[in-house]
Amino acid sequence: MPEIIFNGPAGRLEGRYQPSKQKNAPIAIVLHPHPQFGGTMNNQIVYQLFYMFQKRGFTTLRFNFRSIGRSQGEFDHGAGELSDAASALDWVQSLHPDSKSCWVAGYSFGAWIGMQLLMRRPEIEGFMSIAPQPNIYDFSFLAPCPSSGLIINGDADKVAPEKDVNGLVEKLKTQKGILITHRTVPGANHFFNGQTETLMAECEDYLDRRLAGELTPEPAAKRIR
């Protein structure tokens, strides 16, 4: 897959990019875990998510947030990383102006950034939040959550305890016009050690069902730009 460098708000950003053969294919952006705790775009779960979307014909991008790998800048506690993600989406869209829809998938810290990006970009029609951390990060900006998506976590996660994730899910499920799907991987910790295959099988099943027109409310709520 092509290595790419594109301009971000704090300097150059490094990524891996795979365009679809279809001009109007949807875009998928995959966001990695916390930069200060070893998170990079080469994280195994991030790579597997990238490959999952690529296999299904998406134009796909994963990239290193500022300060990681060859990406310039300094860690910015989420605000700058959200700007990085927005710039990444802008960059892909500039190359694929016929793409009308987008998905965002994020793992851990990346799930928090991904959900914030979702709030700002009406073209994002689906999301995957893997092991989000509502016990650490404030998700109150999801008011309302604009798109249907998947939240998935392990029931042995001590970094993001199950009760906190369940609280986030229950809050989002009260909204009308979207459908939040929640999956739990039994015995999995925050890193899904030994459980990556199970995690990816759940993500693939969800994506395939969404692409088949399932797991969204009927009729689908219209989004206002």
TrEMBL record:
One of its GO terms (molecular function) is hydrolase activity. Keywords: Hydrolase. This is Alpha/beta hydrolase. Residues 17-138 form the Xaa-Pro dipeptidyl-peptidase-like domain. The lineage of its organism: Bacteria, Pseudomonadati, Pseudomonadota, Alphaproteobacteria, Hyphomicrobiales. Gene3D superfamilies: alpha/beta hydrolase. It holds the Pfam family Peptidase_S15. The keyword Hydrolase applies. The keyword Hydrolase applies.
